[in-house]
Automatic annotation (TrEMBL):
<comment type="function">
    <text>Acts in the modification of cell walls via demethylesterification of cell wall pectin.</text>
</comment>
<dbReference type="GO" id="GO:0042545">
    <property type="term" value="P:cell wall modification"/>
</dbReference>
<feature type="domain" description="Pectinesterase catalytic">
    <location>
        <begin position="80"/>
        <end position="372"/>
    </location>
</feature>
<keyword id="KW-0961">Cell wall biogenesis/degradation</keyword>
<dbReference type="InterPro" id="IPR012334">
    <property type="entry name" value="Pectin_lyas_fold"/>
</dbReference>
<keyword id="KW-0964">Secreted</keyword>
<dbReference type="GO" id="GO:0045490">
    <property type="term" value="P:pectin catabolic process"/>
</dbReference>
<keyword id="KW-0063">Aspartyl esterase</keyword>
<protein>
    <recommendedName>
        <fullName>Pectinesterase</fullName>
        <ecNumber>3.1.1.11</ecNumber>
    </recommendedName>
</protein>
<dbReference type="GO" id="GO:0030599">
    <property type="term" value="F:pectinesterase activity"/>
</dbReference>
<feature type="active site">
    <location>
        <position position="232"/>
    </location>
</feature>
<dbReference type="InterPro" id="IPR011050">
    <property type="entry name" value="Pectin_lyase_fold/virulence"/>
</dbReference>
<comment type="pathway">
    <text>Glycan metabolism; pectin degradation; 2-dehydro-3-deoxy-D-gluconate from pectin: step 1/5.</text>
</comment>
<keyword id="KW-0325">Glycoprotein</keyword>
<keyword id="KW-0378">Hydrolase</keyword>
<dbReference type="InterPro" id="IPR033131">
    <property type="entry name" value="Pectinesterase_Asp_AS"/>
</dbReference>
<keyword id="KW-0732">Signal</keyword>
Amino acid sequence: MNSRETYLLLMSAILAALISINLDFTAYTSPNSILSMLTCRNPISRRHHRHHDFIPKVNICDDFPPDIPPPETNTTVTLCVDHNGCCNFTKVQSAVDAVTDFNQKRTVIWINKGIYYEKVMIPRTKTNITFQGQGLDSTAIVWNDTANSAHGTFFSASVTIYGPNFIAKNISFMNVAPMPKPGDVGAQAVAIRVGGDQAAFWGCGFFGAQDTLHDDRGRHYFKECFIQGSIDFIFGDGLSLYENCQLISIASPVAPGLKTINGAVTAHGRVTADENTGFAFVNCMIGGTGRIWLGRAWRPYSRVIYAYTTMTDIIAPEGWNDFNDPTRDQTIFYGEYKCSGSGANVTLRAPYVKKLNDTEAAPFLTTSFIEGLQWLQPFSS
């Protein structure tokens, strides 16, 4: 299944659920009411049956994996979330709340297939948590706040991670607020805010438009993830490595010959030269629609590099933007190294963009960039 099919599958599931209850997703103001209707509604109750009709009772939990949750070990405890009520919890936040504060064991929150309509927050006291989904195309946490509704972009996230040592595997994070146009005020809508140190994401999906992934602060690792958005869809001041990820723009198509810019992949927020932060993209792919920049300098010392990354022709020839502040040209660090594709031609790049040589690129290419030897665990852990 390709990336576009994955997105369409998830969105189709959401829309089908909402259409089935005659609800306009872009207009509703109470997500809790939708969750209640989805989980409590009995479709059979709306049908008219003769008294002698026989409706066999089916236990929806009959096919539930028998080994979930597994028994507790010396290093791991597993909590189970299933919206049909087949295990410990029906909501992800309820499972998070049940985790012991400052627990030294890893708590695996096993989340069954389904779309979980809820806003989730992991506080700083909840350490060593893993979200284990059943596939980025089948398990998703979804909400629809915007900067306007949440009183600030940073608070609009569907999922917020403050607790350190967080891991997510095979799950999607989505903000399905209406897609804004460039320049819209208050329409930013974050799918996830990662504000805890030592967070790793394996095979995860991040779906939104403007400001999809708030890579806020701390050391983070993203492997084989799918990240979708339109404007600044990866932003923040994290120290993060993205490996083998797909970065997909959903900005509106731009007619051939027009020089309109309607999106950007990154907006990194390094404030001073002393901050050890930045985004490194290695062996990634950039595609989709629109005419976009690789990054723009949200803060004066913004730092982003792309290495061995395939770029389609949606990348504007200049490649980058200094946030329309030429004083930042001397302090930002934007680099490219051995990238390919029609969007990777550096001939017309902005003059401050660095064409990195082997020595200059080396610090960004491995997990040593995020000090991974100190904390990053293998996928199987």
